[in-house]
Amino acid sequence: MLLPFELKFGIGQQRLTGHDRPVFETQTIQAADDDFKNAVREAVTLLRAGEVVALPTETVYGLGADAFNPEAVAKVFAAKERPSFDPLIVHIGSVTDLKSVAIVPDEISDTVNRLISEFWPGPLTLILPKHPDVPDLVTSGLPTVAVRQSAHPVFRAINKELGRPIAAPSANRFGRISPTSASAVSKELDGRIPLIVDAGACSEGLESTIISIEPREGKKPIFRLHRAGPITKEQLQAFGKVEKLKQVSADQPLAPGQLPSHYAPLTPLILLESPTDFKPEPGKKYGLLSYKGEDDSPYADIHDWEMIEALSPGSGKLAEAAIRLFFTMRLMDEAGLDCIVAEPLSETGLGVAIMDRLRRASVRE
Ligand code: TXA
Ligand code: MG
After folding, report:
1. Which of 50, 100, 191, 254 has its CA 20 to 30 A from that of 271?
2. E strand or H helix at 75, and its extent?
3. Which residues are near ligand 2, the ion (C-beta closer than 5 Å)?
4. How many angstroms separate the alpha carbon of residue 73 from the centre of ligand 1?
5. Ligand 1 pocket mutation, candidates 207, 209, 225, 326, criterion most atoms within 8 A of CB
6. What share of the chain is helix, strand, coil (3-state, %, to 5)?
């Protein structure tokens, strides 16, 4: 098999250059009501032909490829300039397809079934031992595969019509903010992919929660939280004990989703733990990324802000803040500021995932 670039599994921190990446005139197709069937057909035709397509999910837009076609999956890495040591999530069209991508050990099968019946289709990704048919490129040579079933009607219809699992990372260039609308995908990947399926804004706005499962004799299993997301620790606790990911050794590269610097706007972002910590530099333009907005923020009056954007104006609802986070970060990134100052949110429920994204966005490499 001929791949368009050199691939290294597991060992190198090599970033793929994608220098011979094909150039496309990217089309955007609407998937609303009357156009639904047509959009599904166009997307499936391209996926069958081994192409990549940007697709809406309930979390963020994904860049999908036939998970069993390594050459198609290679195009995902090239379009995103994603390093080959960062594995992709595999999306299945129905729960019965799980056995075609993962092998569920007996010790955790009851737990897996309970999680699936509670949270699928939906924003929970499970890390499970991989089926040998899943190409190594998808899992970056790991013995495990990350699997979920999307709840988005358009994604589900495409997944089912294709009849094969879809490998799909978020549809942004590597290290950048995940897209929650078709126009955000276009800003990230225009000219790099043939098609964007537009189904409007994503209903969750943050990438799925990712866990792995460790069985325990006579006790509830441990869920290792690889990424906080829309399914909260509180929701998972009914099924197992939620714990942090164990520290891996220094010579074992972390997947970029777990790297501190990620989801980064181009404009520097500071997460300001307290209003009194603010030390503005003269002549610089600062914008405030606020939770509830200027009338309800202890940060509003500490500076003559160039702009103030609220995640959940007035009411302060975490679900709304999650949906609007990436959209607002993009908006502020495009506003010509020298620095974005973000307020912290309380770390309960969805606040954990929002704070996780803000912390990572605030770290510079
Ligand atoms: O909501 C989502 O999860 C979106 C939509 C498109 O489904 N997808 C998404 O994919 O966020 P991506 O590639 O941006 O993030 C997937 C994360 C990465 O941090 C990757 O390292 C991790 O999942 N991952 C994938 N397979 C893994 C594995 N076998 N073990 C540990 N982490 C894995
Ligand atoms: Mg991503």
Report:
1. 254
2. helix 70-80
3. 170
4. 14
5. 207
6. 30, 20, 50
